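re: ur question from earlier - yeah i can do the single chain one, its not a big deal. heres the input i used so u can compare w yours
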Amino acid sequence: MIDVTIANFEEEVVAASMTTPVLIDFWAPWCGPCKSLGPILEKVETAYAGRFKLVKIDSDQEQQLGAAFGIRSIPTCILMMNGQPVDGFAGALPEGKIKEFLDKHLPPAEELPAPEEEMTEPENLDPAAVLEKLQEAVATDPANDNARFDYVRLLLQHGQVDRAKAAFAPVANKAGVVRKLEALQHWFNAIDSGASYADEIRAKTEFDAKVAANKRDFDARYALAQLAMRQQQWVQAMDELLEILMRDKSWNEELARKTFVSILEIIEPPKVKVADGQIPPDDPTVATYRRRLSSVVLS
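and the output i got, formated as tokens:
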């Protein structure tokens, strides 16, 4: 359990929820039901062994955060996933009801990634050797979504789209429930979308003109973002998606936000090894755009 303030909210809640669901407990020292709910939440967090992260926000001290989430009574709990609130409940629920609430959203324990190191691209190997190693990992364990993600991502990074599609096909039906696979699906969608234009440069010029004439032409903005994704111009793609989010967060069933989160997943580099007790540094681009997404979502 971690106490969260406005100062560490982006790191401990928004950024953390990109990889692990975060349950926020809005409470106050004077609140009787809060005192009974707190120990139950901590007990459930221990029992779930890493399936979610519990944080607490003092609603009296952090009124700005309470207002951002529309908190009207306490205790209130909000579940964050991929930088976005997805569900919540109010009141001091019993342990069984809390588990029912969490089980609607959390992956089963057996589907959690193994705590072993994920397949990442070793710095001392050439791309061909890395691809061979990842291909072997996928063949050895077809259920290893982390290895498959790294394998397909590397293929796409090197323009081997057909091989990437073949490697992705066996798990395509899981794209709606596995965050890494959803990220790849958005990338494939962008690649296929761009391939449908006879002249990509002309198409981009036409979309730019539409946006200049109407800043709320979200279809044109999204098309520009997809063209940028196709060319692996990630910053340009995220900038276009932010323009949509600043004007309409829920456009097209939150497609802009979901695509933005997918890009962060794609461009997140492997964590560097550090000494025990130290925290690996964040990639500056990923950290910057996580903060920008957070500021837009909470505005």
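Strands lie at 2-3, 22-27, 53-58, 76-81, 84-90. not sure if urs matches, ping me
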